[in-house]
Each structure stands twice: as C-alpha cells, then as structure tokens.
Fold:
Amino acid sequence: MSRLPALILRILSLLPLRVLHALGTVLGWITYGMSPTYRRHLREHLAQAGFGDARVRREAIAAAGRMIAETPAIWFRPQAAVAELIREVNGLDAVLAARAQGREIVFLAPHLGCFEITVQYTSLKLPITALYRPPKMRWLDPLMRAGRGRPTIHLVAADLGGVRQLYRALKSGEAVGLLPDQVPGRGEGELAEFFGRPAYTMTLAMRLVERENVACFFAFARRLPRGRGYALTFRPLPELRAGETSTRRMNRGIESLIRECPEQYLWAYNRYKGAPA
Structure:
C-alpha cells in the first residue's frame, strides 16, 4: 500500500520549491476551510499567544500547507541538494566552538519554519541521533524513516529504548535532536506555562540539557519568500531565571523564537492537549 504514496512523494520532490510552496498555500487554505477543529485550534492558539492580526493568521494558514508540501523535497532529494536550499546560516560558529571544546550538543527544533531541514543540514556538520514519534498511520512510518534517515542521521523511536540511545549517542560524541514542543506521553512531562497557559511539556529535553558539559541550541529554518530557500538559525537556550522550572525555561525560549517569526509556527498543532486533569 505504501508504494503508491512513495511514488507520489518522490515525483513531488522533483518540483521546484517555489511550486511546492504555491501548492502548499492552496492546501493550507483547503484544510483550514474543511476542518472546523483545525480552524478552531489555529485561531484559539494565535489569540492565546497575542497574535490577533489577520495578516499573521493568513500567513500561518499558508505556512502550514507549505510545511506539508515541502516535505517530499526534504525527504527524497539527495542530502547535498537539500543542504543547498539553506541560503543563510546564523549561529553555527557557536555550535562548532562548543563541539571543539568537547561539549555534548543537544538541538531543540520546535514546530517553527521547516523543522525537517534543520537536522538534514546540521547532520552534515556533526552526526545526529534524532528522536521521532512513529506516525499513527502505519504505512507512513517506512516513508518517514526513509525520508528522515540519512548516513549522518540515526533515528530512534520515542520510547525507553530510544531514550537510552540518546544518552549513548551523547557519550559517544554525537549530537542529539528533539522536537521540544511535541506533547509527551502521560508520565513523560509536566505542566509549564506556554504563552500564558499551562501546557503539558516534555521533561526529557531538559534532563539531557542539564547534564554536565552539555551545550544546548535551538534550531529553526525560516522559509524565505517565493520559495528561495531557508535561513537557518541556531540560538542558545536562555539562562534559567530565579524561581523558574526547567520546562518553563525551555518554553520561554521557544516563545522568544516564535515572536521573531509567528506566521511560521504550526499553530494548529494542539499544544495544550495531554495535560492531566
């Protein structure tokens, strides 16, 4: 059953990025128009974060579709060709300097911009073990693993065995990468404020980061206009404030990044689900 979807995705990957983004804009608006739940989440989460501007909402609708449409190009083009889509890089020197000092590197890539391309590009600079959650649609799992897996990227499932492999990867000198704003499973997180509302937030990321000799960087790739590519930014985790929990520290860092580019955050993702009663 997965052969036809794989063929379609590989054909789409051949299209220019500007065409994929144009198709994605249409897809974003179709999804927004057809799904009341999707529409409600997107509008409520934008309002919760203080982005009531209609322009931001329109751009966010289009950006969500572009995220889907660009995925075939990121997954199925040769890795060198994917890396060429990065037109601008900021903050990488700090990452490489920390690595040269012998520090263990943790990357946090929130649902902002093209988060699929961040690990593809960065793994060419240093090998990465990345945590991923298998999709609910089983036929999509082999496609996801084929698309995300590269010689410089080791994928591990979001389970106990995968977590152990993250620790082993750090000790062996590999970087690790996580989606810090992905809602964790029950018992794997705690409530922490996210744009003024409690959100069930993973604790694993900060357990990794707060180990000795670890350097943590946010990574996000902003889409450039008219399908010109992406601008990749690395940003250190902010310092812990007095009385602040580790998970709130992480969420505050994510909020700061989103404020720089609110129209490219995945607002329809139900960030506030999963919180215990």
Summary: Strands lie at 86-90, 104-108, 128-132, 153-157, 175-178, 189-194, 197-202, 214-223, 230-236. Residues 54-76 form the longest helix (23 residues). DSSP finds eleven helices and nine strands in the chain. The CA atoms of residues 128 and 153 lie 5 Å apart.
